[in-house]
Amino acid sequence: MSDTYQAIANSPMGKAVFSAINLPIPVILERWQPGQKSFISGGVLVGAAPGSSAVDTVFATLKGAPEAKPAVLANTRNANDLQKQAAAAGLNTDNYTATREDDSKFKALVFDATGIESPDDLKTLWEFFQPVIKKLDKCGRVIVIGRTPETLNGAARVAQRGLEGFTRSVGKEIKRGATVQLVYCEAGAESQLASPLHFFLSPKSAYVSAQVVRVSAAGFDAQSFDWDKPLAGKKALVTGGSRGIGASIARVLARDGAEVTVLDIPPMAEDLNKVAEEIGGQSLELDITADDAPRVIADAAKKMGGLDILVHNAGVTRDKMLGNMPEGHWDMVLNINIASQLRVNEQLVADGGMGDGGRIVSISSIAGIAGNLGQTN
Known about the structure:
By secondary structure, the protein is α/β, with parallel strands linked by helices. It has 2 domains: 36-215, Rossmann fold (3-Layer(aba) Sandwich), CATH 3.40.50; 235-370, Rossmann fold (3-Layer(aba) Sandwich). The chain is built from 12 helices and 12 strands. It has helices spanning 3-9, 12-20, 55-62, 79-88, 123-129, 154-173, 194-201, 244-255, 269-279, 293-303, 327-351, 367-370, and strands at 42-48, 68-73, 94-96, 106-112, 136-147, 179-185, 211-215, 235-239, 259-264, 282-285, 307-312, 354-362. Strand 2 (68-73), helix 4 and strand 3 form a beta-alpha-beta unit. Helix 8 (244-255) runs parallel beside helix 9 (269-279). The two termini are 27 Å apart.
């Protein structure tokens, strides 16, 4: 939907007209802005199943959000324990009692489910969410933290695996731009939850919902981390970076502190150099399907000291119904969208062009998985 449609649909007259003729009224999503003081503003209701271990990190993370207003749901069986844990983290929390009559709104509902060990324990999800799910505010956030099922056995593994179906169902029930995420955390890795909590609670995750993230132990120190520049010191390369999605990805990486190189074909050099100049980065004019492309990229990566982030964004469409598709259409799409990426990845890994803990991200249309008319290639 265009911005014009969104603007008209959300105007007073537009809402009345669009509702009368049954046209959708898209929510204007809250987006993160540079210089924003707090990653979340508004009420944050926290709950936990008995025996859960991640809630301390939740409270410690919320302490870094000066505009957040944390509260504990008094209706749950372990509310007093949660209040004590919040106080230990230096937070002043309200003890909220949910009723149908009050008009409270919450920007986020966070539930620590790491203590769930059986199907019977799943009842704690209902006890926490049922009284308050309708009190979730516009562009609100729901986060459930569970224990990584693959590390468990028996009933605990089954119960934790069920959290995926629960969160995705909730994601289909909530409205007005709200999102739901599930974060599985290995035992002993609770301190590493600060990063996904910062992202999923913030407007930076406006378009992300119904995801499942796994957190394991690492050397990340949340206390000394610069949350305003989370990618400071990182080296990134974005293919297809001269315009559109690629240019936007490059801008976001640079905004968050990364040193970014944008890559595109020589005919796009003018646009490519404009993007590089805008973000204070570098440009690399290269056809990624060329025979020497993997070597050129690997050499450039090693000169940078190794890439921390590689985003494969370059891609094309050459659409035809399968019975009418010429060989050249098939070969071009497969070469650019898949084969060239694999060749580059293999060269970087073989030559040490990816730094320790590096990340390779491949961008795809949803049609790459779901399929689309005229896009068998």
